[in-house]
Specification:
five-stranded antiparallel sheet; Immunoglobulin-like; mainly beta; 48% strand; 2 domains; six-stranded mixed sheet
Length: 308
């Protein structure tokens, strides 16, 4: 069973302004275990330095591979490379490989220059991006989300891929995060608390892990970083004698308002019969939709509550 929870009260993680909205429940707001892939970062990955200059249709162009691309504060509409590198971290569903093209001088003439960036892994196609430059253009960028392994990037002409302008060998390092709650946040990074109530200063009042049967208690989650999503769920399973999840009990959806928030809570309370339960806070997209077998791997936080 899924029940929608509508917000009445919003607040930032810094205790900002509050906004009242219609609804029947107050939400307090502030602000896969991956398989290991063996990657050897030996000297062959450094054959291509993060910066390389070539000639594209008679025009000088420089490619800089980097951890991210950002707006250049010195030149309007230009982008710049941040932390040039050929070795990249694995970041789950977050874009982790960037490249910035720079024309010096800016493009001349009336011809539109279109480049394609192709990523191959083990000789097989993995991904590609098109980069288009127009007259007067100085810079452009691309980003890819690549899994651990060694890749060859090929920069070619989009309309004539036999025109190979440059190649780059890069490495995406082994995943050190493992299962994720969402994006690049480690599963279980947050803390889930059981409270009599959560006050206006985001304090868990009357925190306990044991409650009387049908006595109302509230759930409160605090994350170390912003959630990155707006739609979350609470999921409850009754535990079996070995501590693993057994029967599915309940599920509630909660819109926390903004992706920057890292705290949220219920205020009207859960009421459960006697037993031992696992309660999860998850991003809505991590929900088990076809069956509720429990033992979730991707969650913001989880905790055990005993109802006596």
């Amino acid at each position: 069973m899924i029940r929608n929870i509508t917000m009445l009260l919003l607040a930032t993680s810094l205790g900002g302004a509050q906004i009242k909205l219609p609804g029947n429940l107050t939400n307090k707001l502030p602000g896969k275990t991956a398989a290991k892939t063996e990657v050897k970062t030996d000297a062959t990955a450094a054959a291509f330095t993060p910066n390389q200059k070539v000639t594209v249709d008679g025009q000088s162009v420089e490619l800089t591979l980097c951890e991210r691309a950002a707006a250049d504060p010195k030149v309007k509409n230009d982008v710049m490379a941040v932390n040039p590198t050929t070795t990249f971290a694995s970041k789950g569903t977050v874009t982790n490989v960037f490249g910035v093209f720079r024309f010096d001088p800016p493009l001349t003439g009336t011809t539109k220059h279109t480049l394609k960036v192709i990523a191959n892994k083990g000789g097989s196609f993995e991904d590609d991006r098109d980069i288009t430059f127009t007259t007067g253009g100085r810079t452009g960028a691309f980003g890819m989300t690549l899994k651990p392994g060694r890749y060859e990037l090929q920069i070619v002409n989009k309309f004539d891929q036999a025109k190979l302008y440059m190649k780059a060998s890069i490495v995406v390092s082994e995943d050190t995060v493992g299962a994720r709650a969402t994006d690049n946040m480690k599963s279980g990074a947050g803390k889930l608390m059981f409270c009599k109530e959560v006050d206006d200063n985001w304090k868990c009042v009357g925190e306990a892990t044991k409650w009387k049967a049908n006595q109302p208690f509230n759930t409160f989650v605090e994350l170390p970083t912003p959630a990155g999503v707006t739609l979350t769920r609470w999921v409850i399973h009754k535990q079996k004698s070995d501590g693993t999840d057994g029967a599915f009990v309940d599920e509630q959806m909660q819109n926390i308002g903004e992706t920057r928030f890292r705290k949220w809570a219920t205020t009207e309370g859960w009421r459960l019969p006697a037993g031992v339960y696992t309660i999860y806070s998850i991003a809505s997209q991590q929900a088990q939709t076809t069956e509720h077998s429990g033992n979730l791997k991707n969650y913001f936080a989880k905790a055990t509550v005993t109802i006596q």
